[in-house]
Amino acid sequence: MEALWSDFALAQRTSDGYLLGTTISPEPPKSDPARLYNFHRWTNPGSLQTDLRYKLQYNPNLKLDKKEANTWLDIFTAYYNFTTTLLAAEEAKNAQRPREADWSTVYESWKNVLNAVIRAYQNEMFEAWTIPCLYIVGKYLRIFAIKADDNAALAQRDTDVALGVHDEDMSNSSSSRNEKLEDAARQIGRIFALCLGDRSPLDDSRKWALYYIANLSFKTYFRLNSISLSKNILRSLQAQAPGELPELSAFPRAHQVTFKYYSGVIDFLSEDYKAAEEKLLAAYEMCLYSPTNTTTTTTSRNRDLILTYLIPTKLLTSGLLPTIALLSSSPNLTHLFQPIAHAIKTANLSAFHAALAANEETFIKRRIYLTLERGRDLLLRNLFRKVFVAGGYEPSAAGAAEGVVTEKVRRTRIPIREFAAALRMAGMAEEEIGDGEGGVDEEGVECLLANCVYKNYMKGYISRDHDLILISHLDDDDDDDDDVDDDKDDGKLEQQKRKMSKKW
Amino acid sequence: MQAAPAYTAVAARHTLQRPATIPIKPQKVSWSPNVRLYVQRAFEPDNAVQGIDLPAMQDKLKVVITNAAESGQLETIDWSQYPLPQHLIKEDRDRAAVYGAHDPLLTNINVPIMSSPAGGAYSPGLSSKKRKNGDLEMSDAESRDITPPGKRKNTKGGLEDRLTGKNKNQSKKEKKAEAFRARDLGANAEVLEKRRQRFGVVGSPEPSSFVRSRSPSLETPSSGPLIGTCQKLEKSYFRLTAPPFPETVRPLAVLEKALLHIRTKWKQEHNYSYTCDQLKSLRQDLTVQHIKNELTVKTYEVHARIALEKKDLGEYNQCQTQLRALYKLKLGGKQEEFTAYRILYIIFTCNRSDMNNVLADLTPADKQMPAVQHALKVRAALASGNYHKFFRLYRDAPFLGPYLLDMIIDRERLAAMAAICRTYKPDVSLHFLAQELAFNSDDSDGSDADAGPRQCLDFLCHHGGESFIERKEDGDVRFAAGRATAVFEGARAAAFRGIDAKPRK
């Protein structure tokens, strides 16, 4: 118990914001696991005020002036009430009675702590170094809101079953399901506004909390599935004049990575893939991860998250597929993306569809399904390229002089039928390619080729009179043709594609 | 001498009830044969409704007849048409169950109506609450002054009777509601009586013993949602600026007939403005009475279909939004059809995030439905730019899909043209284009085989392609695709820009 006060005193003396934050944290520090329990036992509601006042105002170790002490009094009073509710809830949970754990009250009491802290800032009682306290209140507010909502949903379901109501959808409408979380979102918005409106000079400003709070808002809004609100946050941050807000790079790395990740995802969802790629890449590179560092499991998860969005983005912007080495670092990613990547590389349509369907739910949940679908275009391009390659070379120009090395030129006039055959082999559904009588729907194949050309994956033109497509070879690097023989080598293939995609 | 006692002895009361001065059931009144028939019908096992037991039905019957007798409507009410007690109970329960739904849901449902340009400004969820409370307070005050004691005693007795019956059914959660009711017991009974008489409504909406998961403040006892009395089959639509009078609102039975009437008239006359007007007023009546049942679903579906036919996307969108909420209430209806429409509509608006959400909401059962599968195939085809497949699907669209697809077919044709121009050199035959772009005339009209190509020609010219059309000597018409790239690329870009969509490159 004393540890809390000594920490507090130390924090005040050394202006250590993070340490200060731990004193009002719902989670006891590792060095003092029974802290909350002890704190709760240390006093009772009757003598709460006097005990606290003794500790805060008349403490020889602390040098707080009266007003500040009063503020802390409020905060610790709220904190005390909070520990009561938290301990009750945790007890219920530990005693295998999770339904009785009243997280709702926990949330409300924590909200009181939050209000007390906010009031402190509004009254300009706290200096900027104390902002980790805001971090703590915000972070746990969200967590408790989620817990409270989950509990409410469980309780609702219970009563529904008891009363024999079957309209679960009606009573579990999303608005009631996320009631506390919506409230939390509003509170976090309050903190955000509080930090934003700080007029003090930058050295001593609450604006340093902005990115952390913004990240908290993002997490909350994403869970609530309201991307538009997230955009508001982005906009208000961008609206800050350059002198008012420090550059993102000046903020702690953790804030930066998270922020870049979320704004990258927001761009992704708004289909601004160029911007998304930029941000996600930056986040990825900055993310604290090294393959050898196996102790930090949390950072690996962050990296996975970033990659979950970065891979589809790259697929779309540059037609690049993730290497096996990259995917193998995380079993999750391998499971998700490896089949698709493989299918695209080997231009196997049926495998591609199977891979998409296998993880469809995850993809849809993450909103990357539609983007990954576009991989099909890449796949078709690869397929057509294979046909082109498999076509062999033109018979060498007649009458070439001996000794003159004529450059081998690939056959450029390819009948549409060959593409149709390739499509069939690759597993395209019969209904798509057949014309209903066992033949080939030539127009369908032409359409696919036309799209390839249109999207700049191929250069050429179709002649219906001759049922061929003429692939232009004029711009091809002859070097490329030679390399293409090494189809087996995956690495080279990547390089190859990169060259081609750049060219085209 | 014994002084007279300083008090006056009064016999102690033995019962809570004061002696009723007016009998609840006027036994002296002779029942007309209509009433008797009604009672008979109510008791018939064929008419029994599941979930409503006999005592409850009997109670309700008693109430209905009592009220009719008291308000002197025994003769005037058409008993042969009047809904049976069990039906009334079922209505009340449905209404209360839905009325007891969480407020945001209600306001969500009401919002589209409010936000539409011609939509009712009346928000039943909110202002009706206010009105009821206001009514209660107002009539509360006056009832205390005006009502003669006799009348008060009477209704108190009646209400108590009913309430004791209900006590057995109440769940724990209702204890709170009960406390609230008990507080204003006497006054409330007054209010209800007066209201009932004012509106001439005989079937009073009783507090339902069904599920109640909300706080008592949401449900004022027995003063449930508005019940209309208007019997007119046709009614024009007027935007509401204040709570409507019950005389202008049609009750459920009339609304059902009205819907049938509107549908028949539509089939005969196809007068869209009239039909739309009627349907909107129907919807309005349904909303102000908080009716959410199969009829509501049917009304919205009918209106949506008619709006689609007439390409009124504003109305269609409103109906679609409402239907989505209604389907969640599991009231039945043509979910397959309208899910498919929804997907096609989102394709039309190029709303990526909505599409994401819809896909996330689709259940595996949904995906089995052929219409939904068709819509998903359309989406897939358009996503990959496969215009060929798209035009095939266009021809096979089920239900009223073609109307929705008609909205996008123009821009898709331009997209296809852009791709074709880029790829096909030097030229293509007009027939090919007509075929690809689904310009075929109906098969039934075999005489005019050239109609399709002609329409195609019109289309090409309309977008600036006249200069590229060449007539060859053998009568074949060719389109110089190679040279037309720029024109159609521009046309395509313009078409897609209009929707604020990103080109699917």
UniProtKB/TrEMBL annotation, chain A:
InterPro entries registered for this protein in UniProt: Csn12-like (IPR045114), PCI_dom (IPR000717), WH-like_DNA-bd_sf (IPR036388)
Domain of life, per lineage: Eukaryota
A Pfam match: PCI
Coiled coil (residue ranges): none
Domain PCI: 257-476
Molecular function as annotated in GO: double-stranded DNA binding; RNA binding
Disordered as annotated region, ranges: 475-504
Acidic residues: compositionally biased ranges: 475-488
Family (UniProt): Belongs to the CSN12 family.
Protein name per UniProt: PCI domain-containing protein
Species per Swiss-Prot/TrEMBL record: Meristemomyces frigidus
